[in-house]
Amino acid sequence: MDLQSIIEQLETGEQDAALAALQSYNQEMNQCFTFRKQEEQDRKRLGELVISFLNKDLQPSCLLACLETVRILTRDQQCLDPFINHQALSTLASYAGISVSSIPTAPHSQPLEGQEDRGEAGLAAEEWSEIVKESMPPSENPDQEVIVEALKSISNILLHSETGQVVAADLQLIEGVAKRLKQCHDSTWNHEVRFFDLRVTFLLTALRMDVREQLARELHGITLLGNQLDATLGLCWPGTLETARAKFEDLPPEDLPPLSRQQTELAMETLKILFNITFDTNRRKVDEEEAADYRHLGAILRHCVMSSAGGEEETSDFHSHTVNLLGNFPLPCLDVLLIPKVQHGSIEYVGVNMDAVNMLLNFMEKRLDRGQRLKETLLPSMNLLTESARIHRETRKFLRSKVLPPLRDVKSRPEVGDALRNKLVRLMTHIDTNVKDCAAEFLFVLCKESVSRFIKYTGYGNAAGLLAARGLLGGGRDPGMYSDDEDSETEEYREAKAHINPVTGVVEEDQPDPMEGMTEEQKEYEAMKLVSMFDKLSRTNVIQPMQLGMDGKMREMTPDDLHKLTHNPLFQSEEPAHSDSEEEA
Length: 585
Fold this sequence. Notes:
Layout: H1 3-11, H2 15-29, H3 40-54, H4 60-73, H5 86-96, H6 125-135, H7 144-160, H8 162-170, H9 173-181, H10 191-207, H11 209-217, H12 221-233, E1 235-239, E2 242-245, H13 261-278, H14 288-306, H15 312-326, E3 348-349, E4 352-353, H16 355-370, H17 374-377, H18 379-391, H19 393-403, H20 420-427, H21 433-446, H22 451-458, H23 460-470, H24 491-496, E5 500-501, E6 506-507, H25 520-539, E7 546-548, E8 554-556, H26 559-567
Antiparallel strand pairs: 1-2, 3-4, 5-6, 7-8
C-alpha cells in the first residue's frame, strides 16, 4: 500500500481501516532508516494524522500500531514537525508513563522562527494546561509494549530535534522518568522499559545542561542512579563501603560469574548518565554529604571494575564507562578503591588491597597495546591513575613498583623493549600532544616529580618536553606532597651510573673524540664557525636559537647573546645550581 493510500485510510477516522493501513506500513518500513525526499510532505501529513488518532480512545491493537508508526516516522529528522510541539510530545510522554501531573510555566521555551508570539511556544501556561487536559490520554498504561514504543519515539525526537529537546525540558519529562527509576527494585518493569527509561535520561542529560543540573541537584541523581546500578548488579553490602554479589558473597572477584547481557546494557547506560551529571565534579569542592554519596557510588564502581561481562569486548566497554566515571570523582573520594580488606587471593601492598588499582593498570595497558584512538581510549584510565597516585601514597608506591621497578638494564634505551615503562616512554614522543603530555605526567608523578629520577627512568631527551613546560630543565623538583622514602638503586645501576649518557638514559660505547689531535686554536675556530652558522640561520629565520633562562624555562636567544657567543664561545648565561635528592619512592 502506497503512502497516499494509507493517508486516505486514516482520514476516514475509522479505527479498523487505520489499523490495517498502519500495520501494512509498519511491516514494510520496520527496518527503514533512510527516506525518500519526494515523500517528505506525505510523511508529515501521516504524522499529523497518527498524533490525532493517539488523542482518541483507541483499541489496544490500533494504539500499538499508531505508536509503531510514530517510532518509524521519528527516524526522519526532516519530518519531525508533527511531533515536536507540546501537545504531541505530551501525548507520547503520557503513553510512556513519564508525564507529570501539572504543567509548569515553560521557562525554557523560546518562540520558534516564523511563529507568532501567540503560537505554540508562546502559549500561556493556563491555556496550555486546558488543551492538555482535553486531549491527553490516561497517564498510566499497564501495557509495557506501548510504553516501550512511546519511549523509543521520544528517544528519536530528542536525538534529532533541538526544539524537541526544549519542549521535553518544558514538560519536565526528567521528573517522570526519575519517578519510575526510583522503582529500580520493583520487578514490575521489564528490561526494555528500564533500558529506554535510561536512554531517554541519557539523551536529556547529554543534550540539556539545565536538565543535567536538575537531575544532579533537585532529583539527587547520584543517589538515584547509584541505587539503579546497585539493583542492576544485584549487590549486597557485607561491610561499610564493601560490596559483594548477592548469593556469591564468598566468591573472590575473579571467580564471579559474568554479568548477563541485560545487566551490562543497563549498567553501561546508567554509567553514561552518571558521567553526564558529574563531569565537572573534580573541578570543584564537595561537601561532606556529597563526598559520602560519591564514596558509596565509588564502592559500586569498584565492583564494576572487578566484574566481567559476557565477552572480552563487552567487558572492555563496561570497564571503559566505569573508568570514565571514576575520572569525574573528587580526588579524595578515590580512596574508596583501597578500602576493602585484604582477603585470600587479593593483591596486597603495604597492607592495602590493590585489586582495583591493579585491574585499572591492566586495563590501561590493554588499551595502550591496542594502539588505536589513544586520546579517547587510553587517556581516561591514565589520567585516573595519575591523579590517584598524586593524592594517595599507597597507590603511587604500588604503581611505581609495577611501572618503574628498580632499574637493572642500563644498556637498553628507555624506549626500547616490551615492559610497560618502555611503552610509556615511547608515548612521550607521540605525535598527539595530549597523549605525549599525559604519558610524561604519569611517569613524572610516579617519580614524585623529581627531575633527576624522571631523567633516570626516561632519559633527558624524552623528558625534555615536560621539563621545558614546567621550567625544570635546570633540574629541581616540582612542589608536591610526597613522602620521603628509602633509596632503591640497584647494584647494576649504581655501578654504571657514572657512565650513563643522561640524554639517552643508557650506557653507550665510547665514541671517538672528533677533536682529537686538534690544537686549542683549531678547536676555538671550529666552535666559532659553528656559532656563526647558527647566527646566520637565525638571521634568515630558518631556526630560532634558544637558551635556558634563569627561571628554568627556555627563552629565545637575542642577537646580543649570539654576538657574545661569536666572540666568546665559552660564554654561558648564569644559572643557579640545583640540588636534587635521589631518594626513591
